[in-house]
Amino acid sequence: MKSLKKFNLLAMLLAAIIIAAACGNGNANENENNEGGNGDGAATEELEGSVVIDGSGTVYPFMARMAENYMGEQENVSVEVSRAGTSAGFSKFLAENGTDFNDASRPIKDEEKAKAEELGIEVQELKVALDGLTFVINKENDWAKELTEQEIKDIFLASAGKQKWSDVRSDFPDEEIKTYGPNENHGTYEFFFENILEEQDLVKGINLQQDYSTLVDLVSKDKNAIAFFGYGYYASNTDKLSAVNVDFGNGPVEPSVDTIAEDGDYAPFTRPVFSYLNVNNAKEKPQVLDYAIYTMENANAVAEETGFAPLPEEELKATVDALNNLK
Asked: Residue 33's pLDDT is what?
């Protein structure tokens, strides 16, 4: 009888040891499953809160896709992306309790830097991609598929007096040119006016709009229309519009991700696009800094998805390193 009791006691102890070992392995597996996908075994921090972004309509498709991807990984962070335009966005960014980021299709201006300094806002520029200023026409327009750089400028310059297509080339239709573009809230307008037209007056009667989708709709319905905006909006509307191939002196160049580069064939109409970070907010709200780092780590992948040309990887890495130094 005593031997039986000893046997039962030993069996119970052995069972307890086996259960404890199993639980330990389960916890280890659970810890492994909770580790992040950084590849170095470090756990991914779960964040919560909001990130507020406004600004450029040109950069909007890029940033909207980035936000969607990020929220898929950080489900407790809400990223709100709006598109008031570069200049209007800077007004919201450079204010008390302003936005966390301002997307911009032009660099920040000196007066905007001064405003930031006045408010005690530290600003960090994040160059996210390259964009090509693209001139679009109606699908039925079969005469202006290729234009020289100067012909494009003349169409939009008041001083050139090109009121009809036949004024551009004698064999073009004797029809009034309808010019369209984004309004003064947009960095695209400023880039075109300041860098391409060298601040000369635009043609009288040009139809300037706040919403890029409105421009797409107007041109798609007007055979004599020509408009300008970022390549990304054209790339997502190739079923409605045609792009003008531009001759910069060595033959017509089609705007594309391959030609839109700092040293590419479309370089005269290429520009960098940005997002500006409120560093004060990034230091106070972990999700804001995390989103900035995520954006720069994934910039080229999202650029490719949304019609932008990529930046050199070493340039992006340098920006990520600078952001990590804010931690």
From this structure: 38
